[in-house]
Amino acid sequence: MSEIFELEKELLIPFFKRQRVVFVKGEGCWLYDERGKKYLDLVAGIACVSIGHSNKYFIERVKEQLEKLVHVSNLYYTLPQIELAKKLREVSGMDKFFFCNSGTEAVEAAIKLARKATGRKRLVSFTGNFHGRTMGALSLTWKEKFRKPFEPLIGEVVFAEFNNVEDLKKKLSEEVAAVFVEAIQGEAGVYPAKEEFIQEIFELKEKYGFLVVFDEVQTGFGRTGEWFAKDIYNVEPDIIAMAKGIANGFPMGAVGVKDYVAEKVEAGDHGSTFGGNPLACTAALATIEYIEKNKLVENSRRMGEFFKEKLSELGFEADGFGLMIGFDKEKAFDFVSSMLEKGVLVNATSENRIRIVPPLIISREEVEFAVERMRLSR
């Protein structure tokens, strides 16, 4: 398949550094390359493929909608959009929703909503946070290598140290519109916030009047062993950004807000041509329904604990909740390559950090298979 590698260089803008493998099929937690070799997928399209590759229930639901209606724009009403909003209200506890096509779009919408609802401009993010690569979301993203080449970004963004309440207090004032929180930092390598840190944010909210925005793009829809990471910390944000696992890999994003945020919005403040189209909404509904019917939130919790136990036996001290797991590994990129050769896909977020985010359907046997391959790759 060297021809494909050469064609990629010729035809595609080189934004991505890819592993040298060409996948042609998927089934459950497994992917198959063009030679028929199978790989256990512990990446899941970066935490997107919640209910597994080629899920029959998902395919039938999407196929049925595909044969009815794909897109009419938000100039008109469609049933799947309303049905999805009702289901999201049920599982998220938020009141009203806006639909888009990705996580970074959800964050962009959250920025505008926070500024409109409060009348303030300043935003606070944290060291280690990753919120996306479009200009607003990028402004909230910590790593300089992502931000520096594209400055000037949007103004009035300040960073506080993650898990450091005292530093956060120094950055707060009555000019702050919102504090953006990744309760479990994903792109950084799976680092959870301390419970007392999250509680302090909500106490400070009462003092300063800012909104709390939870970026649940990676943590939502059962990934952490709860429907959302907010449920781990027993808090209710004002705004939640969602995407990734919402539609099993279909491009879909959403923002959920409390009523008092939505009340400040006027028609025309924001929009999306493709966001919330009938096909995307049906894909999301099918995914959420399958998670519910098959108790995958619970499976995420159980298999996550089991995975961490097995990693501990190998000497890895794993962080995270549910099936969102990170651990330190020297020469992490070499480890990724070694695991690829042994038929397991893992992701390195840095030179010394591995992230594991498999489909929520993963079994004990598949976890044991992965850990045994890791033992051979140490």
TrEMBL record:
It comes from the Archaea. CDD domains: OAT_like. Belongs to the class-III pyridoxal-phosphate-dependent aminotransferase family. Its cofactor is pyridoxal 5'-phosphate. GO terms for molecular function: identical protein binding; pyridoxal phosphate binding; transaminase activity. The keyword Amino-acid biosynthesis applies. Gene3D superfamilies: Aspartate Aminotransferase, domain 1, Type I PLP-dependent aspartate aminotransferase-like (Major domain). Pathway: Amino-acid biosynthesis. Keywords: Amino-acid biosynthesis, Aminotransferase, Pyridoxal phosphate, Transferase. This is Acetylornithine and succinylornithine aminotransferase. GO terms for biological process: L-arginine biosynthetic process. Pfam families: Aminotran_3.
